[in-house]
Amino acid sequence: MLALRPNCECCDKDLPPSAEDAMICSFECTFCVDCVDTKLPNNRCPNCGGNLASRPIRPANKLENNPPSSERVISDCPSVE
């Protein structure tokens, strides 16, 4: 089951389970679409090099028994110059 991490690893923006702008790689590294578009070249995860895709939204009625992660992760993301 997806962890549904609570934030963008680049800018630390909150990404709740209902966020439509959350992107993930196959290792569940999580980024907002703004960082993917502006900081991550070629739609690739800076951690593993895998592609990024929209994170599915877990139905609200499933969150009680399957809660999202509360662990915030921050990565070294490329800086835009």
From TrEMBL:
Residues 59-81 are annotated as: Disordered. InterPro entries: DUF1272. Pfam families: DUF1272. This is DUF1272 domain-containing protein. It comes from Marinomonas foliarum.
